[in-house]
Amino acid sequence: MTTHLKGQKMFIAGEWISSEKTIEVRNPQDNTIIDLVPAATVEDMLNCLEEAKKGAGIAAAMPVHQRMKVIHGAADYIEEHHKKFARIIAMESSKTIREATKEVGRAIQTLRISAEEARRITGETIPFDQSPGSESRIGYFYRFPIGVIAAITPFNDPLNLVAHKIGPAIASGNAIVVKPATVTPLSALLLAEAFSFAGLPAKVLSVITGHGSEIGDALVTHPAVRMITFTGGLEAGEKIVSKAGLKKISMELGSNSPVIVLEDADIEDAVESCVSGAFWAAGQNCLGVQRIYVEKSIFKSFQSQFVERTEKYIIGDKQSELTDMGPMISEKEAIRVENLVDEAVEKGAVILTGGERNGAYYLPTVLTDVPKDCKVAQEEIFGPVVLLYPIADLDEAIVLSNSVNYGLQAGIFTKNIDMAHKAIAKLDVGGVLVNDSSDYRIDAMPFGGVKNSGLGREGIKFSIQEMTETKVVCFKLPGQ
Questions:
Q1: Domain annotation for the chain: domains and CATH numbers
Q2: Which end of the chain has fewer CB within 10 Å, C or N?
Q3: pLDDT in tens, 124-170
Q4: For 316, which DSSP code?
Q5: Which residues have a catalytic role annotated?
């Protein structure tokens, strides 16, 4: 591959910058070194933020048509280099080439939606005369950019989740500093290349690579940063909140997503949807199906079909179009999942299929009879493991679905509209998918959860609302 040890530079305020210290980017499939990226220092981060302060003024002054042109230009660049982007995603992350190709398509759509939403950042007139004594006043409110945004992104969607931060930030006239996941920085740097090619003014965007333990605090605590948008784990999110100070915070912190399958469901459709939802990207997916509650009358049939479909999954080379699932992001992560499954088995869980590890590969695993106090039942697995439970009825399924301290999305399969509406009303989550698994999202919808699943909502329009502030304007008219 031509990318081997080329040695990338980080993108700071429109300039490509190298560093004495570097970080090895490795392919989790065989642990080979793909490339090197700079290991930024605290001084690099502080300089980056000083430039971002200037960039905030530049971004705010960009007319909407210019923002739209730049964002569309970046989308065009990605479209033109679609195969290159997909290949890099499939090399540095856990995704197969088919999964990576889909992610590139989504990133293009994310940016195009961002460009269109830029023209819809509007306000409203206010009828001040609703209040006695205010008959002589007229006015309105409008939205203005918040300033400098810090974005911290994860490894599991190394391109599209970065686009979900950058697109709305630029659409709404902000400067943004992106700290991508240390293990998957190449896709984010490619995205910076796309925006640079599209003519984004210098200082508006930075993508700075480095270890979070070294530069993270400097980013999240800096007074110039007015908003932090973070996608990642609960523990890291809690640390950021404790250190950030008085800033806007938007966080998506994962889940332990439930799916309910009632006896009137299309079992074949439910199986296909849930298998994909459980094992997409080797289960390293915040929306991934983790717990499936199936009515007892169809449980054996569902379980049999689910296991049979899981065992047909092709595990292997990420660059092969035939592969359904590749490795986890590292052997360390695969060992973590292995330990979680082993703990469940020691407490009485039964492995129906899978449960084996080979390096960073962990086979798609289906468990049943899992005690409620196991970590795999209560926490986010973030790996290719799914739990099957028989339930008496929808009421029991709702209670069990709500029994964990997460609430991102949930799915329910049923043909009964009353049952569907009952689940919609009672499930304590940010989104309910009817006749679909929890693993469904379009980039235009509001996305986020409750409880430990996060704060605020993403999705382009809704991210823009988070990334702007409201200003009220009131005129007192003379002689009235």
A1: 10-253+454-471 (3.40.605.10), 257-442 (3.40.309.10)
A2: C
A3: 999 999 999 999 999 999 999 999 999 999 999 999 999 999 999 99
A4: -
A5: 252, 286
